[in-house]
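Posting here for the record, re: glutathione.
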Amino acid sequence: MTGTIEIFYWPTPNGHKITIACEEMGLPYKITPVNIGRGEQFKPEFLAISPNNRMPAIIDPDGPGGEPIAIFESGAILQYLGRKTGLFYPADERARVKVDEWVHWQMANLGPNAGQRNHFRNYAPAMLADQRQSAYGANRYTNEVNRLYGVLNGQLEGRDFICGDYSIADMITWPWVQGRSDAALIVEDFPHLKAWKERVGAREAVRKALAQAASVRPGVGLQQSGKEAEDARKVLFGQRAR
Ligand SMILES: N[C@@H](CCC(=O)N[C@@H](CS)C(=O)NCC(=O)O)C(=O)O
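Prediction output follows.
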């Protein structure tokens, strides 16, 4: 039995990864919202556990040696939870390396490029008088996400899950193929990806984890007009070293 894991969370794809893992692994958890649109990621107490001013982060009261441990970066969190529970993260070294490859693939490729695509397609237009200015970035990152979907679709051919058995690689990747604007792309061009998306989305633990998002006040849509969205864009976009 382990103590309750505190998840520093906001309802975004990176936040969902951690609630999915805790639900799948049967770990008790509680959510501490970090309203990133209001700048709560810059509070000193949050920076003390997540110096990159990004959520998610966790505190596990029963870390190594029975002492608490704080962890930031969703990939590091999922690998830790997999090692802690021995679930969804194979002990066999060859199988573990495969899972690590796809965890890092998501962290270094799909997540950042899908995030940039979202920025240039959906958020940049709200800040630009001339809409054409965001087109280059939107096209560049849409192409890259399309390429990455192709890579994932190829990996999923003949497999139910990314590494054969369901693993943390699926939990970390699935939240990043949820964008509604990407639905047509997935359906039309990537049949194995589409089938996997539905297979993972039907899991009870995944559904429960996503329902947690409803318990947190939704952030204002960053593409919206109005003062709250404008203030959130000021907090999130154009950050430099302080
Ligand atoms: N590589 C990080 C990315 C986390 C990330 O980008 N989090 C965003 C929300 S999805 C955030 O906290 N943004 C706050 C900010 O930009 O100041 C991870 O996977 O944990």
